[in-house]
Amino acid sequence: MTGPVPELEDRAIACAEHLCDCDRVLLASHIDADGLTSAAIAAQTLERAGVPFETVFEKQLDEDVIAGIAATEYDTVLFTDFGSGQLDVIGEHEDAGAFTPVIADHHQPADRETEFHLNPLLFGINGASELSGAGASYVLARALAEVADETADSGETVTAADGGERTGSSRCSSERRSDGGTATARTDNRDLAALAVVGAVGDMQDSEGELHGANAKIVAEGVEAGVVETGKDLALYGKQTRPLPKFLEYATDVYIPGISNDQSGALRFLDELDLDLKSDGEWRCWAALTSEEKQTVASALVKRAVSRGVPATKIDQLVGTSYVLSAEPVGTELRDASEFSTLLNATARYDRADVGLGVCLGNREGALERARTLLRNHRRNLSEGIDLVTTEGVTQEEHVQWFHAGDRIRETIVGIVAGMAMGNDGVSRSKPIFAFAEKSAERSSANQSGEAAEEKTDGDDEADEEIKVSARGTHSLVRKGLDLSQVMGEASRAVGGDGGGHDVAAGATVPAGREEEFVERADEIVGEQLS
Ligand code: C5P
Ligand code: C5P
Ligand code: C5P
Ligand code: ZN
Question: Phi/psi at 357 (nearest 5 deg)?
């Protein structure tokens, strides 16, 4: 790049130079779609640069996890999609000489700095809407390609991290030179833009219909490199894989009476269109329609929405920018950035980050099938979770609303459920929502367990006493002053926990039994922010 801002680019180059001089690196990343794509970008970058590495995934970077990392033999640890919020703890290990951190993250940083810290928020770029963890990793990937090329070309003397000198090239450049014949997009890492787009979409950075800011630059690079295609399209989930009736029935973000959540209504709507939307007797998917067919369905949908009194602002949301991964097969989850990201969440949030990483790295046989199985489970869990919240309702406080799922929703997806439930009956969009779930849920309960549960049966007494809280807001609340990262940090620490995240979405861990106190404190802080 041609980074989003020159200072971010300079910082990326510094991080890249350090990584190039490493004999090996420990790569640590977060267990969601953005964390997985971050790791996949970083892994391919290190691999192409010839820097040996090992990858680990963590649900949360807490003191114990960081201590565990410090106890490994690695001198350099590359953190992606987390690390900034824990810089205070990481910094102590750095001071003690345990390892040098390199961080590519977009979460709100703790009150501490380090040399190789790549975070959009340090450079005036919004980390919740303009650059994701995968985006930061992509900026690093582009810098690393540049650094490797320069060292390869110049044959200059490189000072290694251990103070010794290597002539000609760092470990980095020598391997890269043997890469000489591959396409430019690959050698300069621009092909990785596709994964960066999936990460950004996975973190809902396109929530106003399209990606913007630094993300938009990455999209442009991906388009140039031939790995991403964009276009105005229906902004509904499931364009590649959902048969048309399901595609329409399940699309509830813009609620269209008589179609949304209405199986026979959706079928009737399609039947009345006078198009042949089946192939071999099976309903086709949106992506398989011709542009004329899409046009016909879309206009009929808008017409129906208007006639049923759906407000114009809502109708506008029916159309958005779609991000297509052009190298992926039509009709698969991998072709649509949004479906791809959901597939990844379905792996990593169920202790199977290895499967999601395999898919990102191109393992299209074993890993993809496995991921699809996990996806069916994830979908069911989300839908049951949303039903639970909607039927049992949420508790309204003055400035916030909340529910406690106990062990009935897995803590790793309770935030997704809370976000998706907002706007449903009884769940307001004018207050942030706080969702509690037991941290031990995936170990002790058969509910929402996924297939990984059997593999993890070690009872952990401490974990039984911890509660996860996820918070979700809306962009309109953020414009009025809401900052959930601050709320989660402050309110959780007030009750002996810890947390952080973004203005619009954040999380925390609190001790069991302190939930109500936490809500009281959060209610106060949100009240102050919105006043
Ligand atoms: O850890 P990380 O930054 O990747 O997670 C961000 C989370 O915030 C995601 O679960 C994403 O779905 C959520 N989010 C949201 N609404 C937004 C932006 C992000 O719910 N507008
Ligand atoms: O991106 P995020 O993980 O927050 O997406 C929320 C989940 O909602 C996805 O995992 C996907 O399965 C589901 N999805 C859906 N229908 C929609 C939007 C999202 O099933 N309209
Ligand atoms: O887990 P959840 O999806 O609710 O996380 C929302 C955001 O808050 C994510 O960006 C996550 O990384 C962050 N978070 C955090 N500290 C925690 C829990 C979540 O920074 N203890
Ligand atoms: Zn992220």
Answer: -65, -40
Of 222, 270, 220, 264, nearest in space to 244 by CA: 270
Mutate to test the pocket of ligand 3, among 63, 470, 490 (most ligand atoms within 8 A of CB): 470
Please give the number of the atom of ligand 3 that sits closest to the Cα of 411.
1
Q: How many domains does the chain have?
A: 2
pLDDT tens digits for range 416-460: 999 999 988 899 989 999 999 999 644 433 344 444 443 444 444
What are 73-121's pLDDT values in tens digits? 999 999 999 999 999 999 999 999 999 999 999 999 999 999 999 999 9
Ligand nearest the Cα of residue 414 is 3
Q: Mean pLDDT, to the nearest integer, of 224-251? A: 94
**Does 298 map to a domain?**
no
pLDDT at position 464? 56
| CB 34 near ligand 1, within 6 Å | yes
Is residue 207 within 6 Å of ligand 1 at its C-beta?
yes
Which residues surround the ion ligand 4 when the cut-off is CB under 5 Å?
Answer: 34, 81, 132-133, 203
Q: Is residue 438 part of a domain?
A: yes
As given in the structure block, the two tokens for residue 294 are: 């899409």
Spatial contact of 495 and 518, defined as CB atoms under 8 Å apart: yes
Q: Which ipTM was obtained for this model?
A: 0.86
What does the alpha-carbon distance between residue 105 and residue 120 come to, in Å, rounded to a whole number? Answer: 8
- Ligand 3 centroid distance, CA of 181 (Å): 42
Residue 227 lies in a domain: no
Q: Where are the alpha helices (DSSP H) in 82-192?
A: 87-95, 133-154, 171-177, 184-187
Where does the pLDDT of residue 490 fall: very low under 50, low under 70, confident under 90, or very high at 90 and above? very high
To test ligand 2's pocket by mutation, which of 32, 246, 259, 382 has the most ligand atoms within 8 angstroms of CB? 382
- Select from 174, 190, 206 the last residue of a domain: 190
Average pLDDT taken over every residue of the chain? 89
Distance CA 24, CA 29 (A): 16
Q: How far is the CA of 204 from the centre of ligand 4 (A)?
A: 9
* Nearest ligand to the C-alpha atom of residue 501: 3
